[in-house]
């Protein structure tokens, strides 16, 4: 078995191996394999980066929504200031409303979620508005 076919066999058996060496690298199958793996890694990296951004945004919204209530509940017993009831009510609604923002956040940032949500909505709404015949 020559050296090139041995490398191709290794790459087929273990796709995570990238063989970069001597002048035989200039052969077309090795270059194609390396480029394919590079594109696959780049696509995976982009997907992971998108996921990290979405999760960070979700965490930031959660933090911004719950922080006022947490601060209010920690400081209310310490300071002797009576706050109006609407302040408590507003912070509670803001905190619990953060859960509703997740679907809006995912819809605006995740293409797959958006596509699936549209398909589900169209399927559901098309069944709701059909006439009884």
Describe this entry's structure for a reader.
With 133 residues, the protein is mostly helical. It has a single domain, classed as Rhopdopsin 7-helix transmembrane proteins. The chain is 77% helix and 0% strand. Helix 2 (28-75) runs antiparallel to helix 3 (85-109). The longest helix is centred in the middle third of the chain and has 48 residues, at 28-75. This is G-protein coupled receptors family 1 profile domain-containing protein. The chain crosses the membrane at residues 59-79, 85-108. It is found in: Membrane. Keywords: G-protein coupled receptor, Membrane, Receptor, Sensory transduction, Transducer, Transmembrane, Transmembrane helix, Vision.
Give descriptors for this structure.
G-protein coupled receptors family 1 profile domain-containing protein; Rhopdopsin 7-helix transmembrane proteins; membrane; mainly alpha; 0% strand; elongated; 133 residues; single chain; transducer; G-protein coupled receptor; 4 helices
């Amino acid at each position: 078995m020559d050296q090139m076919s041995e490398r191709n066999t290794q790459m087929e058996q273990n796709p995570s191996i990238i063989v970069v060496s001597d002048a035989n690298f200039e052969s077309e199958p090795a270059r194609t394999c390396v480029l394919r793996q590079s594109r696959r890694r780049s696509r995976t990296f982009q997907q992971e980066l998108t996921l990290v951004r979405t999760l960070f945004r979700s965490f930031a919204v959660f933090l911004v929504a719950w922080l006022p209530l947490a601060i209010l509940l920690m400081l209310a017993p310490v300071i002797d200031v009576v706050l109006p009831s609407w302040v408590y009510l507003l912070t509670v609604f803001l905190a619990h409303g953060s859960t509703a923002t997740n679907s809006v956040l995912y819809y605006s940032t995740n293409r797959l979620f958006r596509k699936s949500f549209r398909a589900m909505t169209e399927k559901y709404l098309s069944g709701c508005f059909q006439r009884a015949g």
